[in-house]
Amino acid sequence: MSASPSDLTQGARKRANGAASHTGQYAPLSDGASGARSQPAAPAPLAGKIRIFVTLGLLLLTFSSLSAGRLRDIFGGTTPWSKATPPSGSHASSSLSSSPAAGTPPADGVPTSEDGLPSLHRRVVAIADIHGSLTNLLTILSMTHLITQSSSSSSSATSDPSVVWSPLGADDVLVSTGDNVDRGDDTIQIYKLWENLRGQAGEERVRTCLGNHEVMNALGDWRYVTPGDIKSFGGEKARRHAMSSQGWVGRNWLDHYNLSYSVDLLDAAKVRELQSSSSSSVREKGIPPLPSSYAPPRTNFVHGGLHPSFTSRHSLSELNAISHSFLTKALDAAAQGIELRGYLPPGTTQEEMAMWGEKGPYWYRGYSYEKEVDACRIAKEAMEGLKEGVGQIVMGHTPTFEHFVHRCPPRYEASTPTRPIPPLSSPPLINLIDTGISPAYSGVLSSLVFETWLHPEKKRNTPEEAAVEEEGEGTWEWVEKRTMRALYKEQGSAPGKGEWEDLVFEGRRVIV
């Protein structure tokens, strides 16, 4: 979240009529994939019912104009995305009450579902802009089933075994989009917690981005530092040392934080194993190898936003290197006793200066305020420039307080227990996930959860093929299924209370 945030919610709603350009056709998964909300939905108000009847009428008109063969193409699995449920024995849902399902890893390391078929599954959980609130961070991590806490754990015990990394799946990944510092008193405990979780889960499972407020503190810009935060370090001098290249926070930033990460929504090594003809996971079942053309979907995470003016000139690794160089200069200046007070450190290059500018990845807000068609174009250009196969971008920085904002296609509202909204039919390119988690803003606690499955299924394109499958025969095809869920909790609500989730997107596609 930036130094002077603006509430996107009202303005964003006015831009909902923009044209979203995207590829692929999607259809919703069945209820078995969606999972139940934590609270039952109340009857929709009159306006909502009218919208539902209008939507149903339009659907009936559309379906009446389609041939039976076309309907079979849409829902039978021959189009890129169609209707289905997750594989049996896999994690069927990431809802608030989910629990892990057992799988048996064969000799080649690829997990299997309860029916013995190879089945990959991963959740990628994203959290934005904690801003000094350890309590809220722990609540979100528990709500998303990433940690467990013993009864002895406390806000001052974030590095002991009482906080345990215990995700639903071994491949789950946690991503922070930055801004853990400022506006709250718990800076030390929060960075210790990230360090603890990273030590338990590994660097690949806990990814932490730098936010503009991390860099502001490195530059000595303390406008948003609280007195309680300074006191927790033992005074200003001790805090300045900690946030230098010789201090523990500064070294932690340099060693374990990046400007941006692109994360695979499935384990790429296990995907490659399934593409091998020698894989015992597929050979023993008579299943063809996963097509070699398949690559797991990939999502980019950054604090502010990657503008194409940067991605057209630099790879992501180069951008991370430029960011690291700039941060090192700032932290070295602090170690030398130079008080920058927000000014750029000695030796700053033009590229580093641009990165800290208005269109730089720490500060860029165009994905929130540009018109829909322009934001979509910019996002596509930025993703194409990365040349990494990125299909979506996720960022914090610009707060919306009540719920996330998704664009391309647009979704400026969110489902609630009393006002359900259908999920998108295509995964949104742009995802703004800062909801003002800090008590300084009193927004809702939130997390965005990407969940992806990959498994073989018997073809069911026609009734005849379905009948053959029932006899234990038929041909196999590889299927990828995806959901995106926003998990929310009212600020200050009791454990297990004030929680709800919003199914943002769900879809299924056959891999060819």
Automatic annotation (TrEMBL):
<protein>
    <recommendedName>
        <fullName>Calcineurin-like phosphoesterase domain-containing protein</fullName>
    </recommendedName>
</protein>
<dbReference type="InterPro" id="IPR029052">
    <property type="entry name" value="Metallo-depent_PP-like"/>
</dbReference>
<dbReference type="InterPro" id="IPR004843">
    <property type="entry name" value="Calcineurin-like_PHP"/>
</dbReference>
<dbReference type="Pfam" id="PF00149">
    <property type="entry name" value="Metallophos"/>
</dbReference>
<feature type="domain" description="Calcineurin-like phosphoesterase">
    <location>
        <begin position="123"/>
        <end position="399"/>
    </location>
</feature>
<feature type="region of interest" description="Disordered">
    <location>
        <begin position="1"/>
        <end position="41"/>
    </location>
</feature>
<feature type="region of interest" description="Disordered">
    <location>
        <begin position="82"/>
        <end position="116"/>
    </location>
</feature>
<dbReference type="GO" id="GO:0016787">
    <property type="term" value="F:hydrolase activity"/>
</dbReference>
<feature type="compositionally biased region" description="Low complexity">
    <location>
        <begin position="84"/>
        <end position="107"/>
    </location>
</feature>
